[in-house]
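Input (Acyl-CoA dehydrogenase family protein):
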Amino acid sequence: MCRVRLRDVEVEDWRRVGDEGRGWALLDGALAIERTGIDHVVRAARWLRALRATVGRPRGLERLEGQVECATTLARAATEVFLRADVRAIDTAVAKLYTSETCQQVGHEVLRRWSTLARTPGVDDLVHEELFSGLTESPGLTLSAGTSEMMLSTIAADLKEEYERRCLAILHRFGGELVDTVLEVLGPMGAGVRVEPLFAHSPARRTALAETLADLGLDGVERPEEEGGLGLGLTVGCAIALGLGYLGYENAYRSCPLPTDRTGAPGAADEDSHGGCAAPECRLRHAAHALGLGLGLFRTAWEHACAREQFDRKLVDFDALMFPLVRGYAELNAVGTRLHELAEHVADVDGEVLGRFELVAQDALVRVVRAAMQVLGAQGITEWSVASRFYMKCAESIGFLDREGTAAGG
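Output:
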Protein backbone atom coordinates (compact mmCIF):
# COMPACT_ATOMS: atom_id res chain seq x y z
CA MET A 1 0.00 0.00 0.00
CA CYS A 2 1.32 3.45 -0.92
CA ARG A 3 0.08 6.79 0.34
CA VAL A 4 -0.34 9.34 -2.43
CA ARG A 5 -0.81 13.02 -1.56
CA LEU A 6 -2.20 15.48 -4.11
CA ARG A 7 -1.71 19.22 -3.53
CA ASP A 8 -3.02 22.23 -5.45
CA VAL A 9 -4.77 20.06 -8.03
CA GLU A 10 -7.21 21.91 -10.26
CA VAL A 11 -9.99 20.12 -12.13
CA GLU A 12 -12.44 21.65 -14.59
CA ASP A 13 -16.07 21.57 -13.47
CA TRP A 14 -17.09 19.35 -16.36
CA ARG A 15 -14.58 16.71 -15.26
CA ARG A 16 -15.75 16.63 -11.64
CA VAL A 17 -17.95 13.74 -10.56
CA GLY A 18 -20.53 14.77 -7.99
CA ASP A 19 -20.72 17.96 -5.94
CA GLU A 20 -17.68 19.94 -4.89
CA GLY A 21 -16.40 18.90 -1.48
CA ARG A 22 -18.39 15.66 -1.53
CA GLY A 23 -15.74 13.43 -3.06
CA TRP A 24 -15.18 11.27 0.00
CA ALA A 25 -18.89 10.74 0.53
CA LEU A 26 -19.22 9.72 -3.13
CA LEU A 27 -16.31 7.29 -2.82
CA ASP A 28 -17.74 5.92 0.41
CA GLY A 29 -21.00 5.06 -1.32
CA ALA A 30 -19.30 3.71 -4.45
CA LEU A 31 -17.23 1.29 -2.38
CA ALA A 32 -20.45 -0.16 -1.00
CA ILE A 33 -21.68 -0.88 -4.52
CA GLU A 34 -18.38 -2.36 -5.69
CA ARG A 35 -19.19 -5.77 -4.23
CA THR A 36 -22.39 -7.56 -3.35
CA GLY A 37 -20.72 -10.12 -1.08
CA ILE A 38 -20.87 -13.05 -3.51
CA ASP A 39 -17.08 -13.43 -3.33
CA HIS A 40 -17.22 -13.52 0.45
CA VAL A 41 -19.88 -16.21 0.73
CA VAL A 42 -18.11 -18.39 -1.83
CA ARG A 43 -14.94 -18.30 0.25
CA ALA A 44 -16.86 -18.78 3.50
CA ALA A 45 -18.56 -21.90 2.10
CA ARG A 46 -15.23 -23.35 0.94
CA TRP A 47 -13.52 -22.72 4.27
CA LEU A 48 -16.47 -24.16 6.16
CA ARG A 49 -16.40 -27.32 4.04
CA ALA A 50 -12.69 -27.66 4.75
CA LEU A 51 -13.34 -27.24 8.48
CA ARG A 52 -16.05 -29.91 8.45
CA ALA A 53 -13.79 -32.26 6.47
CA THR A 54 -11.19 -31.91 9.22
CA VAL A 55 -13.17 -31.70 12.46
CA GLY A 56 -16.48 -33.30 11.45
CA ARG A 57 -19.73 -31.54 12.43
CA PRO A 58 -19.30 -30.26 15.99
CA ARG A 59 -22.33 -28.44 17.37
CA GLY A 60 -20.31 -25.24 17.59
CA LEU A 61 -20.31 -24.92 13.80
CA GLU A 62 -24.09 -25.00 13.41
CA ARG A 63 -24.64 -21.32 14.08
CA LEU A 64 -21.72 -20.41 11.82
CA GLU A 65 -23.13 -22.57 9.04
CA GLY A 66 -26.49 -20.86 9.50
CA GLN A 67 -24.82 -17.45 9.21
CA VAL A 68 -23.18 -18.47 5.94
CA GLU A 69 -26.59 -19.56 4.65
CA CYS A 70 -28.07 -16.19 5.66
CA ALA A 71 -25.16 -14.36 4.05
CA THR A 72 -25.57 -16.33 0.82
CA THR A 73 -29.25 -15.42 0.61
CA LEU A 74 -28.45 -11.77 1.33
CA ALA A 75 -25.72 -11.67 -1.33
CA ARG A 76 -28.08 -13.10 -3.94
CA ALA A 77 -30.70 -10.50 -3.01
CA ALA A 78 -28.09 -7.74 -3.29
CA THR A 79 -27.44 -8.62 -6.92
CA GLU A 80 -31.13 -8.13 -7.68
CA VAL A 81 -31.09 -4.45 -6.65
CA PHE A 82 -29.17 -3.58 -9.81
CA LEU A 83 -32.31 -4.43 -11.78
CA ARG A 84 -33.91 -1.36 -10.19
CA ALA A 85 -33.45 2.21 -11.31
CA ASP A 86 -33.16 3.59 -7.76
CA VAL A 87 -30.17 1.64 -6.42
CA ARG A 88 -28.76 3.22 -3.26
CA ALA A 89 -25.51 2.63 -1.45
CA ILE A 90 -27.24 1.13 1.59
CA ASP A 91 -28.73 -1.64 -0.57
CA THR A 92 -25.32 -3.24 -1.03
CA ALA A 93 -23.55 -1.79 2.01
CA VAL A 94 -25.65 -4.05 4.23
CA ALA A 95 -24.71 -7.09 2.14
CA LYS A 96 -21.02 -6.14 2.04
CA LEU A 97 -20.91 -5.63 5.81
CA TYR A 98 -22.77 -8.82 6.75
CA THR A 99 -21.11 -11.14 4.23
CA SER A 100 -17.56 -9.91 4.88
CA GLU A 101 -17.91 -10.15 8.65
CA THR A 102 -19.56 -13.59 8.39
CA CYS A 103 -16.77 -14.84 6.14
CA GLN A 104 -14.22 -13.40 8.54
CA GLN A 105 -15.87 -15.28 11.42
CA VAL A 106 -15.31 -18.52 9.51
CA GLY A 107 -11.65 -17.52 9.17
CA HIS A 108 -11.52 -16.79 12.88
CA GLU A 109 -12.84 -20.29 13.56
CA VAL A 110 -9.90 -21.62 11.52
CA LEU A 111 -7.59 -19.37 13.54
CA ARG A 112 -9.02 -20.65 16.81
CA ARG A 113 -8.44 -24.26 15.80
CA TRP A 114 -5.27 -23.78 13.73
CA SER A 115 -2.76 -25.36 16.10
CA THR A 116 -4.88 -28.53 16.09
CA LEU A 117 -5.81 -28.41 12.40
CA ALA A 118 -2.20 -28.06 11.29
CA ARG A 119 -1.27 -31.28 13.10
CA THR A 120 -4.33 -33.34 12.09
CA PRO A 121 -3.05 -36.48 10.31
CA GLY A 122 -4.39 -37.55 6.94
CA VAL A 123 -5.72 -34.13 5.89
CA ASP A 124 -5.96 -33.75 2.13
CA ASP A 125 -3.53 -31.18 0.68
CA LEU A 126 -6.35 -29.23 -0.96
CA VAL A 127 -8.26 -29.11 2.32
CA HIS A 128 -5.13 -27.86 4.08
CA GLU A 129 -4.72 -25.16 1.42
CA GLU A 130 -8.29 -24.01 1.96
CA LEU A 131 -7.76 -23.82 5.72
CA PHE A 132 -4.52 -21.89 5.25
CA SER A 133 -6.36 -19.56 2.87
CA GLY A 134 -8.98 -18.91 5.56
CA LEU A 135 -6.26 -18.25 8.12
CA THR A 136 -4.35 -15.74 5.99
CA GLU A 137 -7.09 -14.04 3.97
CA SER A 138 -9.75 -13.47 6.62
CA PRO A 139 -8.10 -10.45 8.32
CA GLY A 140 -8.40 -8.41 5.11
CA LEU A 141 -12.03 -9.20 4.35
CA THR A 142 -13.34 -6.26 6.37
CA LEU A 143 -10.77 -3.93 4.81
CA SER A 144 -11.00 -4.56 1.07
CA ALA A 145 -13.68 -2.77 -0.98
CA GLY A 146 -14.37 -0.49 1.98
CA THR A 147 -13.79 -1.20 5.65
CA SER A 148 -16.57 -2.30 7.95
CA GLU A 149 -16.45 1.17 9.51
CA MET A 150 -17.10 2.73 6.10
CA MET A 151 -20.04 0.40 5.51
CA LEU A 152 -21.42 1.24 8.95
CA SER A 153 -21.01 4.94 8.16
CA THR A 154 -22.85 4.52 4.86
CA ILE A 155 -25.73 2.66 6.51
CA ALA A 156 -25.88 5.10 9.43
CA ALA A 157 -26.07 8.12 7.11
CA ASP A 158 -29.05 6.57 5.34
CA LEU A 159 -30.78 5.57 8.58
CA LYS A 160 -30.45 9.12 9.91
CA GLU A 161 -32.56 10.31 6.99
CA GLU A 162 -35.18 7.57 6.83
CA TYR A 163 -34.81 4.93 9.53
CA GLU A 164 -38.53 4.17 9.63
CA ARG A 165 -38.66 3.57 5.89
CA ARG A 166 -35.69 1.21 6.17
CA CYS A 167 -37.41 -0.76 8.93
CA LEU A 168 -40.57 -1.00 6.87
CA ALA A 169 -38.56 -2.16 3.85
CA ILE A 170 -37.75 -5.37 5.75
CA LEU A 171 -41.44 -5.90 6.49
CA HIS A 172 -42.54 -5.00 2.96
CA ARG A 173 -40.47 -7.82 1.51
CA PHE A 174 -43.19 -10.14 2.84
CA GLY A 175 -46.15 -8.18 1.50
CA GLY A 176 -46.20 -4.40 1.26
CA GLU A 177 -49.94 -3.63 1.11
CA LEU A 178 -50.80 -6.22 3.74
CA VAL A 179 -48.17 -4.92 6.17
CA ASP A 180 -49.35 -1.35 5.62
CA THR A 181 -52.92 -2.40 6.37
CA VAL A 182 -51.92 -4.10 9.64
CA LEU A 183 -49.87 -1.09 10.74
CA GLU A 184 -52.48 1.47 9.71
CA VAL A 185 -55.31 -0.28 11.55
CA LEU A 186 -53.50 -1.42 14.68
CA GLY A 187 -50.97 1.37 14.98
CA PRO A 188 -52.81 4.69 15.44
CA MET A 189 -55.93 3.52 17.24
CA GLY A 190 -54.71 0.25 18.70
CA ALA A 191 -58.03 -1.34 17.64
CA GLY A 192 -59.26 -0.63 21.16
CA VAL A 193 -56.83 -3.12 22.67
CA ARG A 194 -54.42 -0.87 24.59
CA VAL A 195 -56.58 -0.77 27.67
CA GLU A 196 -53.78 -2.20 29.79
CA PRO A 197 -50.08 -1.29 29.93
CA LEU A 198 -48.37 -2.15 26.68
CA PHE A 199 -47.06 -5.72 26.65
CA ALA A 200 -48.69 -6.66 29.96
CA HIS A 201 -50.04 -10.19 29.65
CA SER A 202 -53.61 -9.62 28.53
CA PRO A 203 -55.87 -12.38 27.18
CA ALA A 204 -58.49 -9.68 26.51
CA ARG A 205 -56.11 -7.78 24.26
CA ARG A 206 -55.12 -10.94 22.42
CA THR A 207 -58.78 -11.71 21.79
CA ALA A 208 -59.40 -8.15 20.57
CA LEU A 209 -56.40 -8.39 18.25
CA ALA A 210 -57.60 -11.71 16.85
CA GLU A 211 -61.06 -10.26 16.28
CA THR A 212 -59.60 -7.24 14.51
CA LEU A 213 -57.56 -9.49 12.22
CA ALA A 214 -60.71 -11.47 11.50
CA ASP A 215 -62.65 -8.28 10.72
CA LEU A 216 -59.93 -7.39 8.22
CA GLY A 217 -60.21 -10.85 6.69
CA LEU A 218 -56.65 -11.73 7.68
CA ASP A 219 -57.42 -14.74 9.86
CA GLY A 220 -57.68 -17.02 6.85
CA VAL A 221 -55.02 -15.75 4.47
CA GLU A 222 -53.13 -19.04 4.56
CA ARG A 223 -56.14 -21.33 4.69
CA PRO A 224 -56.79 -23.12 1.37
CA GLU A 225 -59.52 -21.67 -0.79
CA GLU A 226 -61.54 -24.90 -0.61
CA GLU A 227 -61.69 -24.36 3.17
CA GLY A 228 -62.94 -20.80 2.85
CA GLY A 229 -59.56 -19.11 3.03
CA LEU A 230 -57.51 -17.07 0.59
CA GLY A 231 -54.71 -19.58 0.07
CA LEU A 232 -52.00 -16.88 -0.05
CA GLY A 233 -49.32 -18.93 1.67
CA LEU A 234 -46.95 -18.75 4.60
CA THR A 235 -45.07 -15.64 3.43
CA VAL A 236 -48.22 -13.56 3.86
CA GLY A 237 -48.80 -15.09 7.29
CA CYS A 238 -45.28 -14.08 8.28
CA ALA A 239 -46.07 -10.53 7.13
CA ILE A 240 -48.94 -10.35 9.63
CA ALA A 241 -46.80 -11.76 12.47
CA LEU A 242 -44.05 -9.28 11.59
CA GLY A 243 -46.47 -6.35 11.71
CA LEU A 244 -47.82 -7.39 15.11
CA GLY A 245 -44.31 -7.69 16.51
CA TYR A 246 -43.24 -4.36 15.02
CA LEU A 247 -46.09 -2.66 16.89
CA GLY A 248 -45.23 -4.53 20.09
CA TYR A 249 -48.36 -6.66 20.21
CA GLU A 250 -48.79 -10.30 21.07
CA ASN A 251 -48.79 -12.66 18.11
CA ALA A 252 -52.55 -13.01 17.87
CA TYR A 253 -52.31 -14.36 14.34
CA ARG A 254 -52.62 -18.13 14.25
CA SER A 255 -52.96 -20.45 11.28
CA CYS A 256 -52.67 -23.79 13.02
CA PRO A 257 -54.55 -25.43 15.90
CA LEU A 258 -53.16 -25.37 19.39
CA PRO A 259 -51.27 -28.55 20.32
CA THR A 260 -53.05 -31.06 22.50
CA ASP A 261 -51.86 -33.11 25.43
CA ARG A 262 -52.12 -36.89 25.73
CA THR A 263 -55.84 -36.66 26.57
CA GLY A 264 -56.56 -34.57 23.49
CA ALA A 265 -57.15 -31.38 25.48
CA PRO A 266 -55.55 -28.10 24.31
CA GLY A 267 -52.05 -27.58 25.69
CA ALA A 268 -51.22 -24.82 28.12
CA ALA A 269 -48.05 -23.58 26.49
CA ASP A 270 -47.39 -19.89 25.85
CA GLU A 271 -49.63 -18.79 23.00
CA ASP A 272 -46.99 -16.43 21.61
CA SER A 273 -44.83 -19.45 20.92
CA HIS A 274 -47.69 -21.15 19.08
CA GLY A 275 -47.53 -23.69 21.87
CA GLY A 276 -43.95 -24.53 21.02
CA CYS A 277 -45.32 -26.16 17.86
CA ALA A 278 -42.55 -27.96 15.96
CA ALA A 279 -44.15 -27.52 12.53
CA PRO A 280 -41.86 -25.52 10.22
CA GLU A 281 -44.69 -23.11 9.40
CA CYS A 282 -45.29 -22.27 13.07
CA ARG A 283 -41.60 -21.91 13.79
CA LEU A 284 -41.20 -19.48 10.90
CA ARG A 285 -44.26 -17.46 11.96
CA HIS A 286 -42.83 -17.17 15.45
CA ALA A 287 -39.43 -16.15 14.06
CA ALA A 288 -41.25 -13.46 12.05
CA HIS A 289 -42.95 -12.16 15.18
CA ALA A 290 -39.65 -12.11 17.08
CA LEU A 291 -38.01 -10.28 14.16
CA GLY A 292 -40.82 -7.72 14.23
CA LEU A 293 -40.21 -7.15 17.94
CA GLY A 294 -36.51 -6.66 17.27
CA LEU A 295 -37.27 -4.11 14.56
CA GLY A 296 -39.70 -2.34 16.86
CA LEU A 297 -37.06 -2.05 19.58
CA PHE A 298 -34.50 -0.87 17.01
CA ARG A 299 -36.92 1.83 15.83
CA THR A 300 -37.63 2.90 19.41
CA ALA A 301 -33.91 3.23 20.16
CA TRP A 302 -33.20 5.13 16.95
CA GLU A 303 -36.05 7.58 17.61
CA HIS A 304 -34.63 8.20 21.08
CA ALA A 305 -31.13 8.78 19.69
CA CYS A 306 -32.47 11.32 17.18
CA ALA A 307 -34.21 13.33 19.91
CA ARG A 308 -31.83 12.99 22.87
CA GLU A 309 -28.90 15.42 23.17
CA GLN A 310 -25.75 15.03 25.22
CA PHE A 311 -22.76 17.38 25.28
CA ASP A 312 -24.58 19.59 22.73
CA ARG A 313 -24.79 16.73 20.22
CA LYS A 314 -27.56 14.31 19.42
CA LEU A 315 -26.88 10.72 20.44
CA VAL A 316 -27.36 9.61 16.85
CA ASP A 317 -24.15 11.50 15.94
CA PHE A 318 -21.95 9.46 18.32
CA ASP A 319 -20.58 6.70 16.10
CA ALA A 320 -19.11 4.71 18.98
CA LEU A 321 -22.58 4.45 20.54
CA MET A 322 -24.58 3.97 17.34
CA PHE A 323 -22.40 1.60 15.29
CA PRO A 324 -23.37 -1.52 17.30
CA LEU A 325 -27.03 -0.63 16.68
CA VAL A 326 -26.33 -0.01 12.97
CA ARG A 327 -24.64 -3.41 12.77
CA GLY A 328 -27.75 -4.82 14.44
CA TYR A 329 -29.91 -3.36 11.68
CA ALA A 330 -27.73 -5.11 9.10
CA GLU A 331 -28.20 -8.40 10.96
CA LEU A 332 -31.98 -7.94 11.15
CA ASN A 333 -31.96 -7.24 7.42
CA ALA A 334 -30.06 -10.48 6.77
CA VAL A 335 -32.36 -12.48 9.04
CA GLY A 336 -35.43 -11.00 7.33
CA THR A 337 -34.09 -11.85 3.87
CA ARG A 338 -33.36 -15.43 4.88
CA LEU A 339 -36.73 -15.78 6.64
CA HIS A 340 -38.49 -14.69 3.45
CA GLU A 341 -36.62 -17.29 1.41
CA LEU A 342 -37.45 -20.06 3.90
CA ALA A 343 -41.13 -19.05 4.01
CA GLU A 344 -41.31 -19.05 0.20
CA HIS A 345 -39.89 -22.60 0.04
CA VAL A 346 -41.12 -24.02 3.35
CA ALA A 347 -42.03 -27.37 1.75
CA ASP A 348 -38.35 -27.95 1.00
CA VAL A 349 -36.99 -26.81 4.39
CA ASP A 350 -35.74 -29.56 6.67
CA GLY A 351 -35.38 -29.39 10.43
CA GLU A 352 -31.61 -28.92 10.42
CA VAL A 353 -31.74 -25.91 8.10
CA LEU A 354 -34.54 -24.37 10.15
CA GLY A 355 -32.68 -25.05 13.40
CA ARG A 356 -29.56 -23.31 12.11
CA PHE A 357 -31.65 -20.32 11.05
CA GLU A 358 -33.22 -20.08 14.50
CA LEU A 359 -29.78 -20.05 16.11
CA VAL A 360 -28.70 -17.17 13.85
CA ALA A 361 -31.93 -15.24 14.46
CA GLN A 362 -31.63 -15.68 18.21
CA ASP A 363 -28.01 -14.53 18.18
CA ALA A 364 -28.81 -11.46 16.05
CA LEU A 365 -31.76 -10.44 18.20
CA VAL A 366 -29.73 -10.68 21.39
CA ARG A 367 -27.14 -8.30 19.95
CA VAL A 368 -29.81 -5.88 18.72
CA VAL A 369 -31.45 -5.84 22.14
CA ARG A 370 -28.11 -5.18 23.86
CA ALA A 371 -27.21 -2.35 21.46
CA ALA A 372 -30.68 -0.79 21.69
CA MET A 373 -30.70 -0.79 25.49
CA GLN A 374 -27.26 0.84 25.53
CA VAL A 375 -28.56 3.66 23.33
CA LEU A 376 -31.76 4.05 25.36
CA GLY A 377 -29.89 4.33 28.65
CA ALA A 378 -32.05 4.95 31.71
CA GLN A 379 -35.20 5.22 29.60
CA GLY A 380 -34.69 1.64 28.50
CA ILE A 381 -34.78 0.28 32.03
CA THR A 382 -37.66 2.42 33.32
CA GLU A 383 -40.52 0.12 34.19
CA TRP A 384 -43.43 0.30 31.74
CA SER A 385 -41.55 2.48 29.30
CA VAL A 386 -42.09 1.36 25.71
CA ALA A 387 -38.41 0.43 25.47
CA SER A 388 -38.49 -1.63 28.66
CA ARG A 389 -41.57 -3.57 27.57
CA PHE A 390 -40.07 -4.22 24.13
CA TYR A 391 -37.05 -5.58 25.98
CA MET A 392 -39.11 -7.99 28.08
CA LYS A 393 -41.22 -9.10 25.12
CA CYS A 394 -38.08 -9.74 23.09
CA ALA A 395 -36.70 -11.78 25.98
CA GLU A 396 -39.82 -13.94 26.06
CA SER A 397 -39.86 -14.46 22.29
CA ILE A 398 -36.16 -14.96 21.64
CA GLY A 399 -36.08 -17.90 24.03
CA PHE A 400 -38.53 -19.88 21.90
CA LEU A 401 -36.06 -19.74 19.02
CA ASP A 402 -33.79 -21.99 21.13
CA ARG A 403 -35.15 -25.36 20.10
CA GLU A 404 -32.10 -27.12 21.54
CA GLY A 405 -32.66 -25.53 24.94
CA THR A 406 -36.38 -26.23 24.80
CA ALA A 407 -35.77 -29.90 24.06
CA ALA A 408 -33.20 -30.14 26.84
CA GLY A 409 -35.66 -28.62 29.25
CA GLY A 410 -38.24 -31.31 28.55
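The domain at 158-408 is CATH 1.20.140.10 (Butyryl-CoA Dehydrogenase, subunit A; domain 3).
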